[in-house]
Design goal:
The protein has 389 residues and is an alpha/beta fold. 44% of the residues lie in helices and 14% in strands. Bound molecules: ligand V47 and iron/sulfur cluster.
Amino acid sequence: MNTGIEQLVASAKDAEIRTIGEKVLNRSRLSFDDGVLLFEKAPLPLVGALANWVREQMHGNKTYFNRNFHIEPTNVCVFACKFCSYSRLYAHREEGWELSTEQMLDIVKSYDGKPVTEVHIVGGVHPKMNLYFFTDLIKKIKAHRPDLHVKGFTAVELDYMFRKAKVSVEEGMKLLHTAGLDSMPGGGAEIFHPDVRVQICDDKVDADGWLHIHKTAHNLGMHTNATMLYGHIEQYHHRVDHMERLRQLQDETHGFNTFIPLKFRNHDNEMSHVTESTIVEDMKLYAVARLYMDNFPHLKAYWPMLGRQNAQLTLSFGVNDLDGTIDDTTKIYSMAGSEEQTPALSTAQLVSLIKQVRREPVERDTLYNEVKNYKDADVAELAVNPLYN
Ligand code: V47
Ligand code: SF4
């Protein structure tokens, strides 16, 4: 007797899509062409059901989040990515902000006594904020709160820091890791394919440089994430090329935790004329990513960018992680046109968001160790408990 998902695959009208569906059910790896075909031809209900099936095989109903906060050292940037609504060019640096070490430590101290597990540090690329500035900052954060996981710096920021300090990637990564940098976020990946990259972010680190920095971090025992900025001028084969390069590195190192597709938002940037992707295209992207990235343990939807309701929807299309409470000064997405003007959710709100769509909220640390399962938690009780607000 066939199960529902097998019947759904068997009933697919297109023979190629049926074959891909069977591969997924056998847990066989999808090829490059399979990835493109899914984008081109697969009906959303089928690709969504397959991705949900894979997600539930891997994680059941569990939906992870963490309790974190962001620090953005500066929005001044030497680069000029066309999609960026957030940075101020170095030439106009008086229009931007720059935080001092003391100001950043004050942000860390403002969380004293609060049960956050991670600080996420990411911002523009400012020539004065060099390798030694950040090494010193990380040491001071760790001296103040040794158990706080420091996840920081995109490969773009690191590439610039290392070149400016005239150190190799290996030397630079070792220095930061020894100072207390625990892991790296996935930003700066955008779209790796040079035909697209040259049009949207010509002047920053290229695909090989980005991958080399992550590989070096993995070789030092650090975990990292990977993003993909989608829904602008890229074509389906560029998306699959991007995922393929990440999948290959993951086969080698197993150092990536999470893949995070980032939906391009078109407000107030040099690509404002580009129409944003539809919700149907967004859900399909998440689903194909879950199917293609078979060696990535986690797929994350970043709720400040998608909006809360769409983030809930992704949980039926392969996603098993909603990032975190993010308590934040994060301006990247509100400036780029996301409807989330206040990117902070209390733990009670995040738990409620996940429970509303009948998934199991699990608080995790950065490395996906379970901190607390909220399956049986009473949201009304959490909402009045200061520890969860
Ligand atoms: O690399 C910039 C993106 C990224 C826009 O690793 C935009 O846990 C959409 O990488 N529309 C930085 N996206 C943020 C990032 C991130 C976020 C959350 C979690 C993690 C993680 C990483 O933001 C940039 C770029 O791809 N971005 N402008 C825009 N207009
Ligand atoms: Fe700078 Fe990052 Fe914005 Fe590019 S996306 S301009 S590297 S802050």
